[in-house]
Design a protein that fits this description.
This protein is an all-alpha fold and about 450 residues long. Helices cover about 85% and strands about 0% of the residues.
Amino acid sequence: MATEKDLTQGNLVTTLLMFALPYVGANFLQALYGAADLIIVGKFCNSSIVSAVATGSQLLQTLIFFITGLTVSATVLIGKAFGAKEYDNILKIINTMTVCFIAAAIFLSTVIIAFDNQLLTLLQTPVEAFKSTKEYVFVCALGLVFIFAYNAISAILRGLGNSIMPMYFVAVSCFMNIILDIYLVGKLHMGAQGAAVATVISQAASVIAGLVYLRKGDFVFKFKFSGIKFDIETAKDLFKIGLPLSLQDTLIPLSFLFLFSLANSMGVAASAAYGSVIRLNAFMMLPAGSFAMALTALTAQNLGAGNLKRAVKALKLSIFFAFCFGAIFFIWQQLAPYSAIAIFSTEDAVLHEGARYLKSFSFDYLIVPFVFCLNGFFFGCGRTAFAAANAIFSAFAVRIPLAFVLCTLIPSATLFHLGIAPPCASIVTTTSALTYLIYLSKKNKLYSAI
């Protein structure tokens, strides 16, 4: 199996699908990874434990998102260097990213552990779920270094056009997590703490597999565990592209955490239902997210090779494929929302609340393909500042205010009203992104950012 792949050559449809489908597989497994905790906890524990795992994992995911911008910037820089055949720069980018990730992992772990009470209070964590949520967050915080390491390894390989191996690594982690969840939660009755322990151990396994592959693989560079050097100019490039994404990936989940707090204020059933829908959406959104992630690397390589037309054509194809998936999911949630929530919980109250939310929120499945793919294209072009500003604006000027108004001013508001806000925000994001793309095309400025 090839360790690298040139995305600037060959039939574009075939290249895009062969590169994007492993993304779909990896993201599906990663979503299954997170969902397994809720599914298994939901089968063996009460709704307060389900709420604890849902709230705790959402908090940790929000904090983890701060570093993911750097992984995208590494993919872009590595992809651009690979497309331009500037192989000497690749190891320099990898070394610098490694140092940044180690520092970030230590910092965020410390912050989470030190301020867990305050963070969980801000989320309006239900009293009956507070202790279990704190236990879950503490254990997972200790394992943040493995989450960052996996993302770093994946960023390296995807920049080199290899999307298959990250899928294999997350598969190892996913199946180990399920087995450990069943044992620790089902047999040993460790509850939320058991789910967290399973998560950390399985993440460590995927990192070990990834490091072995990097060390043994036949790459255009030679990966070494020693002699890692930090390059200040490369770090500046990483932060120039990555910081806007880090800001976006931190603030956007915070907007959804605000929605989570509104759901928590409606009671344990609504909290568990909203947490279940978040896990469900990890599956529903993954085709659009996968094509967008694939598009980022493909765009970076092609712009590095000076082939803008191929990158633009890939954008159009990505939107088309992602929209087809979104339409299927939309129809499912409109016709049979209970069947989706039942995957995570069998409690009548949770099923009812979850179905209410999906009836309104599911319109987002039709709009998100445009949002994600346009952003993926901008990321590959290095236009991360606009993409981040656009997403943050729609979140804080549309999603949060609209959700607050609907849930506080409407008497007896339910999750149905809460679900109206996200698709409205996505419409604003898409409109702005299309306008900006047209502007850049007319001014011939798509190349200038990288």
